[in-house]
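[PROTEIN RECORD]
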Amino acid sequence: MITLTAADGTRLALHDLGGTGSPALLLPGLCGNAREWAATASWLTGTHHVHALDPRGHGASERRPADVSRAAHVADAVLALEEIGPAVVIGQSLGGHTAFLVAAARPDLVNRLVLAEAGPAGPDGDTAAGIDRWLSGWPVPFPDLATAAEYLGGGLAGAAWAAGLEVHDDGLRPAFDSDVMVATIAAASGPRWTEFASVSCPMLLVRGEKGFLDAAEFERMATHPLASAVTFPGGGHDVHLDSPELWQLAVREFLLV
């Protein structure tokens, strides 16, 4: 793990997942962390040197940063890219939101962009309250990985979420504080269509048929002249986890073009 220090002093964890070739940076969504990218890294390392960033407030990065703004998250990803070199940037959900903002602000650092269930419309006014209710309902501590995985959705996605939990004396607990997550998603409100339109590198847009990304928003995103778009039948919000074969095929084909 590489420890980076942001301009405001926030400690960030950048995980080297191995591989050779050109760099790739993976950015998880809200409440996620680098561990959820293990399955993607298992094949992406065949062609790329893969790193994953724990966003501020998540995973092994500083748990309670003073600043959770979009600008701070973008600056953190820029710092990671300055460490590993210009890269393919792959982000899911809020991580994808960060990814295209980085591509817009620093086109010299982003060669290609993959956005999974992420768009520029931003969360609506009820999202933060919904996240607060959802996290407040978690029956923590979880007694074991199997219980956690089942509660967190089951299957590969649930297992990946469970793997990101921390071990405590009384069981497994999230690697984040709920109030920080609520503040982070609240800070992402407001449309970012101008920034999205200014992205100047090839983009792959991925939507799950049963995910959270609005179909109309996705259709508008797909009109970007550098975008390729695909919807995974039956896929959910965690398309990189619940549709692993389609995800691998789509990303690998995009990176080979």
